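Workshop exercise sheet. Pairs work together: one partner reads the sequence aloud, the other fills in the structure field after running the prediction. Swap roles for the next sheet.
Pair: D.N. / O.F.
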Amino acid sequence: MAEKKTVSVTESNRKKKTTTAGGSNMPAAKATGSATPKRIGAVILWILAIALEVVAILMVGNRIIINLKYHLWFIIGAIVLDLIFVICGSLLWKSANLIDPASEKNKTKFWLWNNMGMLVAVAAFLPLIILTLTNKNADSKTKTAVGIIGAIALGIALLFGHDWNPISAEEKAAMEGTFSDSALPEGDVYITSTGTKFHLYEDCQHIKDRTKFSCKEAASEENKNIVDIAIEHGCTEVCKTCEAKFQKETGTTPAEGE
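Structure field:
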């Protein structure tokens, strides 16, 4: 009886071990693109956001007065722009994390990398709120408006800054290795615009009647592994239904350990 192929992705170290009857290994995944430009862009946007917060604080204390009649509106405008820069920076940073995620081996870096957007959100709005409410030179109308709008902006920024579906370097390597291009049943993976899972079969019941996106063409254009493309679009898990079908058709079973 032919020996079954075994794919081992342990929970403890998330390493991939793939063997066949002939003992050959699957080819390694191609390197992904650089996340550096996105990280630099995020940092620049966050610096601009903090700068706008400083401007807003100075305007609250009447250190900067552009137009006395519309003074409060200029403060609100600075807060809104601050929020826009924080959100855009957070989206860029999370996108970079999908390309180049942190390793779970370094707990501190992993936590920081996946919570950076929330930390910046706090830094970009909490000092403004506190200093406004404690500013003796600010009138009650300004304090009320800035306090409420600042709190709302902080809440929105925290929602966008939180990574709802973080992935580690180990998890990404495991998925790339287990479902490398040569092992994909249709030579492609499929994703939807709103899903967080990638699918190995185009006729999967979960996406059969939905608008699908094939990752193969994009992977070829960007010289990346097909699964890389799915991950970089926010699909960080394989569909369980597709995985079960994949295992049944290929005789592949996930090992419990090394």
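Discussion prompt: The radius of gyration is 24 Å. What would you look at next?
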